[in-house]
Specification:
disordered C terminus, 2 domains, Ribosomal Protein S5, domain 2, elongated, Rossmann fold, alpha/beta
């Protein structure tokens, strides 16, 4: 007898539909699985046999052959347990074959027939929706996540026996109801930290406001204790909310790696990733055995990647950031597969100006030799620095600033200005693939960064003074465009260009 069930696995960030074909033939009892199954898929035979028997069904004493089509795509994950078990029951005439039509099954089986939550349900259900499948059976732990996809009837079950009852309609199945739009709109931000806690460092605060408004990259340089990490950690409190399209992309990434909280089916806040400087290049950009998994740069998609003590990172790890910072995605190629993950993030980096941290600090004496200083600064390559939009030099706080008890400007006020600037950019790029000024293409730059004669002359002098590359010049224009958006002006005025030029590196700041 032959039966077929629909399921899916992951291929990068996309769901890949899998047709689970089962054939029961005469011969000595055996279980063979073909179609490029990986180790965790092959091991399912023992789980499936015990789950079927312990659920009160009969396991066929015949030759069982399972084919996972298409056969030229590798299959990973444990979500194929349920469709394999259902196809075996259908092929053995224990449930009607018609029950498996127009339904997708996902879930990991325990030995007692219980269904366990699996990773990557959201991308697979999205693929099912695009293929026209109307019904999906998932473990109860994946109910909210699967219900994010509209126009798909989701039936959460706890056991294999309940899944069979839904398939055969022994009990009238009721689709799981989840109002995703209401949930998305009702999510409230709650922060235990705020920009009002930071005293002084007004230029750095202004720089981070520009970064948040335009999605730019920033490098904070200053001695220990001047507030670099404190500023960077408060960056999320001034970022605008994710729109639904952005939230869906971020949720898919977190679903793939199994970081989606049980009580949060849709990620509505921009994420901040802060990897330690001992991270490997695979941990940063993605990788691993089999199909590569997303790295930190992808988990920071539409959010912030905070790199503290930037020169302490391995040089190879830092150089892997160059292409994602430019293209906003990363392609990971391995011998048998190649996957592409989104990686549109704001890089917020912090570093000391020298190994001891007190170079050009009037209150402390630097103990570093000129050769040590050069070696330290050369740990960061010129091409990577060329992809930084704003360079900010911080100085230690004065006694008056340290003793000042008056709160600074609150994050809510800064965030209101940032949100208005982002709304201007959303309307500007409604016909484009860009979400913010930092993602503008060359054509977008030519169209949206018009300069008057005074501004043009100012940029001409800046090109000679700073020896700007074409990339650095374009990034300077993007920063000026963001400053103009914060002011609510259509054209880039000379004062906007002048402020953008203040954030370029000088010799006493860092010499790339």
């Amino acid at each position: 007898m032959y039966a077929c069930a629909a399921s899916g696995t992951l291929l990068g960030i996309d769901g890949n539909l899998v047709e689970v074909q089962c054939d029961l033939a005469r011969g000595l009892p055996a279980f063979n699985m073909v179609g490029l199954p990986q180790k965790e898929v092959q091991e399912s035979r023992e789980r499936i046999r015990s789950a079927i028997v312990n659920s009160g069904f009969h396991y066929p004493q015949s030759r069982v052959t399972i084919n996972l089509a298409p056969a030229d795509v590798r299959k990973e994950g444990v979500g194929l347990d349920l469709p394999v078990a259902a196809s075996i029951l259908a092929a053995g005439n224990q449930i009607p074959l018609e029950c498996l039509k127009d339904v997708m099954l996902l879930g990991e089986l325990s030995l007692d027939g219980q269904l366990r939550r699996v990773k990557g349900v959201l991308p697979v259900v999205l693929a099912a929706h695009q293929a026209g499948i109307q019904h999906v059976i998932v473990p109860e732990g994946n109910a909210y996540e699967a219900s994010v996809v509209a126009s798909v009837n989701v039936y959460p079950v706890q056991t294999l026996k309940q899944a069979v009852e839904v398939l055969t309609q022994t009990v009238k199945p009721t689709p799981f109801i989840f109002d995703r739009d209401h949930y998305f709109n009702q999510q409230q931000r709650q922060w235990s930290i705020d920009f009002s806690e930071i005293h002084g460092q007004e230029q750095a605060k202004r720089a981070l406001e520009i970064v948040a408004a335009g999605g730019h990259n920033v490098l904070l340089v200053g001695p220990p204790g001047c507030g670099k990490s404190m500023l960077a950690k408060r960056m999320p409190t001034i970022l605008p909310d994710l729109n639904f399209a952005e939230a869906l992309e971020v949720t898919q990434l977190y679903s793939i790696v199994g970081l989606l909280p049980d009580d949060q089916p849709l990620i509505t806040q921009r994420q901040v990733r802060s990897p330690h400087h001992t991270i490997s290049y695979a941990g940063m950009v993605g990788g691993g055995h089999g199909i590569p998994r997303p790295g930190e740069i992808s988990l920071a998609h539409h959010g912030v990647l905070f790199l503290d003590e930037l020169p302490e990172f391995d040089r190879t790890v830092l150089e892997t950031l160059r292409q994602p910072l430019e293209d906003h995605h990363i392609t990971i190629s391995r011998a048998l597969t190649s996957v592409r993950y989104p990686a549109s993030f704001m890089m917020v980096a912090a570093m000391n100006p020298c190994p001891c941290g007190f170079w050009q600090d009037q209150s402390q004496s630097c103990r570093c030799t000129p050769s040590e200083l050069r070696r330290y600064q050369k740990r960061i390559s010129g091409p990577l620095l060329d992809r930084v939009d704003l360079f900010v030099s911080l100085q230690p706080l004065s006694k008056a600033e340290l003793l000042d008890k008056a709160p600074g400007e609150a994050s809510t006020s800064i965030r209101a200005r940032v949100s208005r600037a982002r709304q201007i950019q959303t309307e500007r790029f409604i016909q484009s693939n860009a979400f913010c000024n930092a993602q503008m293409s060359v054509n977008d730059i030519d169209q949206h960064t018009q300069l008057n004669d005074e501004g043009r002359q100012m940029f001409e002098r800046a090109i000679d003074h700073f020896n700007l590359s074409a990339r650095a010049f374009h990034r300077l224009l993007k920063v000026a465009r963001t400053i103009a958006d914060l002011e609510g002006t259509t054209h880039i005025l000379p004062q906007h260009a002048a402020e953008a030029l203040q954030y370029r590196p000088a010799n006493q700041f860092i010499d790339p």
